[in-house]
Amino acid sequence: MHRRAFTRTLAAAALAATLVAAAGCDDSGDSAKAGGQSLEKVTYLTSFGTFGRDAYAYVAKEKGYFADAGFDVDIKPGGGTGENLKIVTAGQAQFAPIDLTGLLLSAGSGQASNFVAVSGIQQRTMAAIITLEGNGITSPKDLEGKTLADSPASVVRNLFPTYAKLANIDASKVTWQNGTPQTLMGTLAAGKAAGIGQFVVGKPTVESIAKKTAVVLPYSDYLQDLYGNVLLTSQSYAKAHPDRVKAFTGALLKGLGDAIANPDEAAQLLKKYVPTTNPQAAAAELTLMGPFVKSEASGVPVGALDSQRVARSIAILQGSGQIKPGLTPEQVIDFSLVPKA
Fold first, then answer.
1. What are φ and ψ of residue 87, in 5° steps?
2. Cα–Cα distance list, 224 to 53, 99, 259, 286, 298 (Å)
3. Distance of alpha carbon 162 from alpha carbon 169, whole angstroms
4. Which residues share a beta bridge with 175?
5. 60-74 pLDDT tens trace
6. Is 303 helix (H, G, I), strand (E, B) or coil?
7. Which of 100, 148, 160, 257 makes the best surface tag, with the fewest CB within 10 Å?
8. pLDDT digits over 107-135, tens only?
């Protein structure tokens, strides 16, 4: 009897262990297990495709920063400001970096709701037109009479009227054709467009594809108050889970800091997740992005956003007629969630 009871006890213990293991391995629900910690599954969109400029999210994932913060993150290629905004506000992704100016344009025209920015990524706009030597474009005025390519939802394209006004370009003399993040650089290299909407950090990747020297016309030459990308989430998610938003932001910014400090390492990690990555071009993008991430002003942390600067950005867009009066920084940014000095 004693032997049979002992056997039954062992069998019960084995069954219990099997059930616990199965529960821990099940990833069909809303959370996963890692080291005994329950991880919330969230979807994160990159800003625009899978270029080096977005490697910091993969760094945060690979180094366990997301897991340490309580998240199991599925990173997917983003489609630019407009597309990312649409997906996040629809609840199909929880976080995405989008250009703050593009967000202001959407908010000011009433085209979007249920969103909030919770952190800065770049302290200056990286929007630019990129062309190639030999295309006859060396200054903004040279864009007149040319055909440019970009996604319809891109902030570069949507901000162009304001840039054109300040740079003395007749915007009516510039033709735009549609492109996607995946095809734009190939379109430029093939001569199917004289220039493309890009971020300034795209220069080395463009050159690696086109095998020619790239010419960059940065919007920041005329729009110095504008921020670059900010981290976006839905207003409903931020209201329900402010502590989770802060935890995710902290993990992402930690990955951003590592990527800027060690671009070669970040580029190799990106290649692990995206095998088509050109590590040299990716590292060069991150090197160029460094000064945009770290503010020259002392005491300003990575990720900071200043309400007065945002107000000046709004005034610029209102002055050019791209948005109506009445928009305030607090309608777009939750400053209680933004990293503080």
1. -70, -40
2. 21, 14, 25, 21, 18
3. 10
4. 147
5. 999 999 999 999 999
6. coil
7. 257
8. 988 777 899 999 999 999 999 999 999 99
